[in-house]
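Following up on my earlier thread - several people asked me to post the actual chain instead of describing it. Fair enough. Here it is, all 277 residues.
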Amino acid sequence: MGGPYVLKSVGDKPIRESHALILNSRAFPTEEQALTASRAAKAAVLYTAAKLRMSVDLGGDRPIGGFGQIMKEQVREHLKAELRSDVHGVTIYDDTLETVFASVSASLTVAKSGPTFLAVLSDALQRDLRPSDKELLALELYGVLQFESSPRARFLTLVSIVESLTDNTTRPPQALAHVENLIAQTGSAELEPGEKESIIGSLRWLRYTSIGQKTRNLLVTHLGQTTFAQKAADKFFGLCYDVRNQITHYGKTPEAIQQLLPELERLASELLLQVVE
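Reply from S.P.:
Thanks for posting it. Predicted structure:
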């Protein structure tokens, strides 16, 4: 775990009014330890965004622009410092050398009060969160949610957040044996090679429980009898998934989407916090 962390806004604006923030920590003995801490810090920011239901853009850890060698040498000569291209996201550097960056390393939209944001972020940093790859994906999806103005795009993103948190679990032994028998029969059937492989590929996915079963188990485990629109979490999500199917399979946008969106967003947020914690 890194520390202490320093959070500051770019320019003279207070944190609650800023659209660009820098979170910095120093003095890690090795680059590997700094990288581990940076991942935990990134997870903490995303966790904070999910808890406060706000937008966050941590970038793709890529340099923004670049500087020529002549400019770098001039900065080294006159300022006695290393000039580095700013990175929108996480960047690790040797802090024993004076380093100059172009601007900001990450940005977010702070829509909550400054003290509340700082309190939640501080707590998340102390937790030293280590989300799995799937959990980190879900956090990132939630982080960019508010940047999307299309209701149905937001709706599909929220459904995807829940889906991404599920695990592939195999069916009970008897059902699994039946699926394996179907695969074997298809393998010996007189079909075109391409058609045969396509069917076998589909059958292999039947080894695992359905998305409906997986999400139901996930929601019952983590949200119990918490209600959304006066329905248990798994029942409410089942309704949302039916709407999702109408959107993706037929391009229709049911009127119910506007009523479902706020509660689906609350469900995704509460589920994320339960799973990541």
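The radius of gyration is 24 Å. That should answer part of your original question.
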